[in-house]
Design a protein that fits this description.
The protein has about 400 residues and is α/β, with parallel strands linked by helices. The chain is built from 17 helices and 16 strands. Strands 3-2-1-4-5-7-6-8-9 form a 9-stranded mixed beta sheet, sandwiched between helices. The longest helix is centred in the first third of the chain and has 14 residues. It is globular, with a radius of gyration of 25 Å. The mean pLDDT is about 95.
């Protein structure tokens, strides 16, 4: 092991293809394992920096490093699990799909005991080594195939069961239905509930929230849509055996040093009625209004009307999910949930205005939403190149029709 780790450190920046070709030069080294470790460490840099900074860890499968949680989402899940068990002393959690072990490691920093389970021998052996190296002595490592017959052994009466089903079939193709993932939560959930009250499931951020909750049943208590770095990363569903009410959705934006959470009841969103922008923003003075672009968590969660009602924003249109802030105070109130732009000017979309904006702001970013052209077409028509002169938006207003907005990100 010592020679392997030394080799990995010495060749960390080299072309791994060359190492594979030159494998005969290093007969004492498992080159395939070394290459997987080198490539995995590159993927973990900045993603799970704590593991990247520890040179003694080994990573037998590159795909596991690609698919593992980031530090930000790992910490969030651990804090979430702690909240679920806030009245349980010395609580425990069973991670049925351990993988690389990043989630289990973050859980171990909050829970008294973590049961890591993984059916692949290579990952289990690596996890034992890595957890010991990291000093996580409260993690038990199991090597079981998760099935209805042995779920009791895998769960071991943990207070929470965490499952991150594999979203690829036996041929490596992506799957999207819950029952096509491995393990199949739909088949196992009732058996798991015999041993544990709480199940925490991580689904693809592409999954349909209402469909997933309908299929999982009335025990769905909370849905957390987690975004970080401008991307929707995870969809977490908390199932509670004792829960029979409607679930709550939490849109979570994880920022560098903070988190912003917008919580709502889906029924309230469906019932929310707002009037769309009915005061002209065409010809407004620069700096008098702001444009709010919701972050990925809000967009995925679907809180399109409640965000306007709760923060007294003006929505441009029923299907145009952009909002006008009439004051600096309004803009600052929603800044943690997305992007804020100070509006420079606004004009109706026409050949003349498109050409004019292109000449005024030749180096700008471009976004088109809900108008009869896509972003790339609008970019070509303006003739602008990427830059920071402005951000040009082509948007549909239910009150004023298709409009062009030039704005500056603040």
């Amino acid at each position: 092991m010592e020679n392997l780790l030394k080799f990995i450190a010495e060749h960390a920046d080299e072309d791994v293809s060359r190492l594979i070709l030159d494998r005969n030069k290093f007969p004492e080294i498992d080159i395939d394992l070394a290459v997987n470790c080198i490539e995995s460490r590159r993927k973990l840099k900045g993603k799970v920096q704590e593991w990247y900074d520890e040179p003694g860890l080994i990573f037998p499968l590159k795909l596991s490093a690609e698919q593992c949680s980031s530090s930000a989402t790992g910490r969030y899940k651990a804090a979430f699990a702690e909240k679920i068990c806030d009245k349980v002393k010395d609580w425990s959690i069973a991670d049925l799909t351990g993988g690389l072990g990043v989630d289990s490691w973050f859980f171990s920093q909050k829970a008294s005991k973590v049961i890591y389970n993984e059916m692949q021998d290579k990952l289990c052996n690596a996890a034992r080594h890595n957890f010991k190296t990291l000093g996580a002595d409260n993690i038990e490592v199991n090597n079981l195939i998760v099935s209805a017959e042995n779920i009791g052994r895998a769960v071991s009466n943990a207070d929470i069961v965490y499952i991150d089903p594999a979203r690829r079939d036996s041929e490596g193709k992506k799957v999207f239905l819950i029952e096509d993932c491995t393990p199949d939560v739909l088949t196992l959930k009732d058996e798991i509930f015999k041993y544990s009250r709480h199940i925490l499931i991580k689904l693809s951020p592409m999954a349909d929230i209402s469909m997933a909750c309908d299929r999982l049943g009335c025990t769905c208590r909370e849905v957390h849509v987690v975004a970080t770095g401008g991307e929707c990363k995870e969809l977490l569903i908390w199932m509670d055996r004792e829960w029979k009410d409607e679930y709550t959705v939490h849109a979570v934006e994880l920022n560098a040093e903070s988190e912003a959470i917008f919580s709502f009841n889906p029924q309230k969103e469906r019932e929310c009625r707002i009037s769309y922008e009915q005061s002209s923003i065409i010809g407004i003075e620069a700096g008098s209004s702001y444009l709010f672009e919701p972050g990925k968590a809000l967009m995925k969660a679907g809180a399109f009307n409640l965000i306007a009602e709760r923060f007294t924003l003006k929505k441009l249109g029923k299907s145009t999910h952009y909002y006008i802030c009439s004051s600096t105070e309004e803009a600052e109130s929603v800044r943690p949930y997305g992007k804020i732009f100070e509006i420079i000017e606004c004009q109706p979309i026409a050949k003349r205005s498109i050409k004019e904006f292109g000449l005024k702001y030749p180096k700008s970013e471009v976004t088109a939403r809900n108008i009869p052209m896509d972003t790339e077409t609008l970019r070509k028509k303006t003739g602008v190149k990427s830059g920071d002169d402005a951000h040009i938006f082509g948007l549909k207003s239910d009150w004023e029709g298709n409009i062009l907005i030039a704005a500056k990100r603040i």
